[in-house]
Specification:
385 residues, alpha/beta, FAD/NAD(P)-binding domain, seven-stranded mixed sheet, six-stranded mixed sheet, 13 helices, 19 strands
């Protein structure tokens, strides 16, 4: 009889974990509280480490075909001057691929299509997770008990499973930034594949997609819970003097398409990613700020590493210990680096630090900038087959 797992959460990390576990022969049920399994979001950038993880899961080719490579662009000032240029060709030469931009919903669909429909239990709220006997964990789910050899908690930054496992942990905290984002309704004439623009306490960026549309995001340094009656009107006002194509991106967006979320993170690292036969994965384990574009990539790394560790070790307990030992140091280091990047990026508001940062970026040699990127992107996944 094969081993069984319940994955709590049907986002990118949860679906990837389910695919990885099935590839090593486990039976998997994914429990997702949403009634429609279609990840809400705008766009996402996938670096080499995330793409390599997707390759091991068997969906890398399909994801690449639905993505657009980020070969051109970089970081700019609100007036349009360049702080740093992106060299996607150099990155591709170094790691075998440029960063790829894809609508988040498309990535989610491709992951869903890699799983049998009966694997997905949607519209069900996962209740408490309990160890009912040695080697068996139970998830209470809508009046039904699901027993398994393993539970994977992939239930996001506000993870209820994590809270029950670590009741004294402070949990997620507000990063100081809130983000508004959307995908344009129609194509937009863009000269670059990807851009970030850093102003004083604000950031605006875009990712171009294969069909000519684009995702844009605006990051603002505001109090938690701040919301706007008309988000697009607010952004048009705030970014009215910023360079093209920012006005065009906002004009190509329907008001109802704008998503607005405060950015929360696990600033206090967890002491372990596993408790008994429960494993934390993705944002439930290491929710980070989006400043390095590594949130989804780290969740994908988690999924492949978990499956490989369970396949390689003689017992589930040994596999989980290996997963924790391999994933916790790296993912927590990336989370720390993302936080630091935010502090040196859009969160700077005083003119003197902004000027010093801009000068440093302009003077940084392209090779040095590439080495900094490779620290996070150049990850080799364990093999599942």
């Amino acid at each position: 009889m094969g081993k069984t797992a319940v994955v709590v959460g049907g986002g990118i990390g949860g679906l990837a974990a389910a695919i990885g576990l099935r590839r090593i022969g486990w039976e998997v049920t994914v429990v997702e509280r949403a009634s429609v399994l279609d990840d809400v979001g705008a766009g996402i950038s996938l670096a080499a480490n995330g793409l390599r993880a997707l390759d091991e899961l068997g969906v890398g080719t399909a994801v690449r075909e639905a993505s657009r490579g980020q070969y051109s662009g970089g970081t700019r000032t609100p007036e349009g001057g360049w702080l740093a240029r992106m060299d996607g060709a150099a990155l591709e030469k170094a790691v075998g691929t440029p960063i790829m931009g894809i609508p988040r919903a498309t990535l989610h669909r491709l992951l869903r299509e890699s799983l049998p429909a009966e694997t997905l239990l949607i519209g069900s709220e996962a209740g408490p997770v309990r160890q009912i006997q040695p080697g068996t964990v139970r998830v209470d789910c809508g009046g039904k008990a699901l027993d398994a050899d393993l539970v994977v908690a992939a239930d996001g930054v506000g993870s209820k499973v994590r809270h029950r496992l670590f009741p004294s942990h402070p949990g997620p905290v507000y990063s100081g930034s809130t983000v508004l984002r959307a995908i344009t309704e129609h194509t937009v004439e863009l000269d670059t594949d990807f851009e970030l623009t850093w102003g004083h306490g604000a950031e605006f960026g875009h990712i171009a997609f294969p069909d000519g549309r684009a995702e844009w995001h605006a990051v603002l340094t505001l109090s938690a819970g701040t919301r706007f009656a008309d988000p697009l009107a607010e952004l048009r006002h705030r970014f009215r003097e910023w360079h093209d194509p920012i006005p065009a991106l906002l004009d190509a967006t329907h008001t109802g398409a704008v998503l607005h979320h405060d950015v929360n993170e696990l600033r206090t690292p967890l002491p372990t990613y596993t408790v008994g036969r429960i494993a934390l994965l993705g944002d439930a384990a290491h929710a980070m700020t989006p400043n390095l574009g590594q949130g989804a990539c780290q969740a994908l790394e988690d999924a492949v590493t978990l499956a490989a560790a369970l396949a390689a070790e003689p017992t589930t307990e040994a596999g989980l210990a290996r997963y924790d030992a391999e994933r916790r140091p790296r993912s927590q280091a990336v989370a720390h680096a993302a936080r630091q990047a935010g502090r040196m990026g859009h969160q700077l508001s005083h003119p003197l630090p902004v000027a010093l940062r801009n000068t440093a970026m302009r003077l940084t040699p392209s090779r040095a900038a590439l080495r900094m990127i490779l620290r996070h992107h150049n990850w080799a996944p364990p093999q599942l087959n």
